Amino acid sequence: MESPFKSDVLKGKVALLTGGGSGIGFEISTQFGKHGASVAIMGRRKNVLDGAVSTLTSLGIPAIGIQGDVRKVEDAKRVVEETVRHFGKLDILVNAAAGNFLVAAEDLSPNGFKTVMDIDTVGTFTMSHEALKYLKKDTSSSSSSSSSSGGLILNISATLHYTAAWYQIHVSAAKAAIDAMTRNLALEWGTDYDIRVNGIAPGPIGDTAGMSKLLPDEIGNKTREYMPLYKLGEKWDIAMAAVYLASDAGKYINGSILPVDGGLWLSHPRHLAKEAVKKISRSVEKRSRAAPAGLPTSKL
Ligand code: HXC
Which residues contact 200 (CB under 8 A, 6 or more apart)? Predict the structure, then answer.
């Protein structure tokens, strides 16, 4: 699908994306590149990184892949430094790396809980912490315009924790903590360093590891019936939100977490058809005006 944004809205920017070699992370890498950014992608699997980089470079996007695990501080440090060494600076960090599996709370080991917290939450903090010195506002007068304002951190979370989600206690906890970090860093680093920190909370997005792990087809097709827009999102939807937030169009947006889920988090399964509600609603009013015996109208 064609982007509605001009192809140079991220011109001259350098972005580092954790989990940037696959799924939503890769789509953001691609769209950032198509809008003028150079991209460094970080991931654990070399073959995935190699494939992603060759696709990006075939599109004319300056791209490198750097192997690393966000759970290791030394990897985070090395990947950030290698990005800056290769491209000369860092403007945008996207924390998209995540781990997930469906498991009932009672069957989840403490180490299983910790593993997801380490990847999603601690990984996001570690990467942000390592990237800070490069994302800070460059106050030297000779600097280029792209580095004259502070950088951007974009955290990918979820909407699971807005209410509660079956068999996702570890991920809900991890993503809730990420949203909290987004707001706290937006406050601290926005004030001190002119760095914007925002989040995107994707809903169910087709053709992703999250969908195949959490909503296999037989359940996913049923779920669509109570989605406000009756359809899954696309990776493109998330990437367009990321381009918007990373571009100058988002220059006054700081500490926001944008749900991109078609309104699903607001929704609950519909138990009654709309037509049935119309009928029932009128007849209930009539009944209540008649005030059944033993039940005063003031208590209705
Ligand atoms: C119960 C499990 C489990 C499962 C692992 N564990 N899988 N417990 N059910 N299916 C437990 C293990 O038993 C172990 O605990 C601990 O977790 C660590 O497991 P490892 O396999 O050693 O971990 P590791 O190799 O590091 O792999 C991490 C992973 C894996 C998270 C388990 O799935 C992974 O790397 N995933 C990355 C890709 C991914 O999941 N992408 C999906 C993102 S989707 P014990 O106690 O036995 O030692 C997404 C969407 C979120 O983020 C929002 C949705 C709306």
Answer: 154, 155, 156, 157, 238, 241, 242, 245, 257, 258, 260
- Atom of ligand 1 minimally distant from the CA of 204: 55
Q: Name residues contacting ligand 1 (CB within 6 A).
A: 98-101, 103, 108-109, 111-112, 115-116, 158, 160, 171, 209-210, 213-214
Q: Domains of the chain: which residue ranges?
A: 14-269, 272-300
Q: Please write the tens of the pLDDT for every residue from 103-143.
A: 999 999 999 999 999 999 999 999 999 999 999 976 554 44
pTM (two decimals): 0.92
Residue whose CB lies within 8 A of the most ligand 1 atoms, among 42, 45, 101, for a mutation test? 101
No. of helices (H) and no. of strands (E), the chain: 10, 7
pLDDT in tens, 184-204: 999 999 999 999 999 999 999
The domain covering 14-269 belongs, at the CATH homologous superfamily level, to NAD(P)-binding Rossmann-like Domain (3.40.50.720)
Q: How far does the centroid of ligand 1 lie from the alpha carbon of residue 235, in Å?
A: 22
